[in-house]
Amino acid sequence: MPTRNRIDDFAYFTGAPLFNERLHVGRPNIGNRDGLMARINDILDSRWFTNNGRQVQEFERKLADYLGVKHCIAICNATIALEIVIRSLQLKGEVIVPSFTFVATPHSLQWQQIKPVFCDIDPSTHNIDPQHVESLINSLTTGILGVHVWGRPCPIEQLTDIARRHGLKLIFDAAHAFGCSYQGRMIGNFGDAEVFSFHATKFFNTFEGGAIATNNDDLAANIRLMKNFGFSGYDQVDFLGTNGKMTEVSAAMGLSSLESIDELMQAIRNNYQQYRRELAGIPGIHMVEYSEVDRCNHHYVVLEIDAETTGLDRDSLISLLHAENIFARRYFHPGCHRMEPYRSTDPDAGIALPHTERLTSRVLSLPTGTTVSRDDISAICKIIRLAVANGPELGDRMKRHPRQ
Ligand SMILES: *Cc1c(COP(=O)(O)O)cnc(C)c1O
Question: CA 189 from chain center: how many Å?
Fold first, then answer.
């Protein structure tokens, strides 16, 4: 692979990208392909495509085993899963949620006329700040919806304590955190319920999909009815439900990914560690780190760029990388409070969210996953190193030659 030795070589100036094909963040991982095909043939032969078929039942059982949780309910996606949990727990009024998350988190509340009250983060962990949570609680608050950002558990212990003291429900959006653990227990065991996403771009996918994990028997029974229109028996509907069912093909994908999960994790961990080694010691670039004690999926290679040190701001670095066909992403940008409908409802929300505001202009995530090779990672790291070494000059030149 050609390399870049001088900033004149950058595709931003020459128009000739280093990579012929785009390297995307969140390119899907595929587990055991032959196993998947065999399962899909079984599904076709049996003509049982959905409605709690064999694949979904086996997937739910194996998920619950893997997570060490009593109930795991497969759902069509994590957004609907969040909505179902929120309704099952009868939340209303206001729920406290971080703004530094994917917009599905607050949307799942707003969709049912519950006001998401945005909370700031701890800049050192990127996760919800429990002290700020507590200060936002009022007589309308019914719950807290925490997010395990990058798969790093949010302050579960403190939030559990706050929820207990104030009589609030506690839900975790664990969309990033499948396969991660907290103090030796798998994520999925905390709060009233936790929700995983198995969207194609996540560490572990079922094309589209999600799951709700809970140790509460009554809640699980309620969720099972609610995801199936409220049907409790043939022709018998007990309450308002929706359609949250996972298809058999999705469950088959989940089962074949679950068979390869250890290799998958190892490969992604190796990518992460290579990035870490090759980006070490660059002033102004800080890489998000993961616990050495707990399990983590290493699916997010996240950099925080300090433009004052590098002389090159996050957006310029992104432009430079995009020109090379390295599709780094500005996740999460902007914060949810700057998206509709929240921006119109409360245009000044950012004043109370200084750490979120700052972080959303500093983070970017880099391509990883099973389709990114060692050479790819080395080339990406070299470009970043060269760019930062020439930060001020490069930033200046880019301003003078803005690219369309
Ligand atoms: C991906 C994601 C979701 C939504 O998951 P879907 O399965 O696509 O509905 C929710 N929250 C977070 C934090 C996510 O990253």
Answer: 18
Find out whether 66 and 52 touch, Cβ atoms under 8 Å: no
- Given a cut of 70, whether residue 201 has pLDDT beyond it is yes
Residue 404, pLDDT > 70, answer no
Residue 403 has pLDDT above 90, yes or no: no
13 touches 362 (CB < 8 A): no
**Count, residues in the chain:** 404
Nearest Cα neighbor of 336 from 107, 142, 95 is: 107
Mean pLDDT within 1-16: 87
- State how far the Cα of 284 lies from the Cα of 307, in Å rounded to an integer: 7
Q: Can you tell me the distance from the alpha carbon of 203 to that of 205, in angstroms, rounded to the nearest whole number?
A: 7
60-78 pLDDT, tens per residue?
A: 999 999 999 999 999 999 9
Among 75, 149, 197, residue to substitute to test ligand 1 (most atoms within 8 Å of Cβ): 197
Determine if ligand 1 sits within 6 Å of the CB of residue 105.
Answer: yes
pTM exceeding 0.90? yes
The Cα–Cα gap between 216 and 85 comes to: 12
Categorise residue 97: left if φ over 0, alpha if ψ from -120 to 50, beta otherwise.
Answer: beta
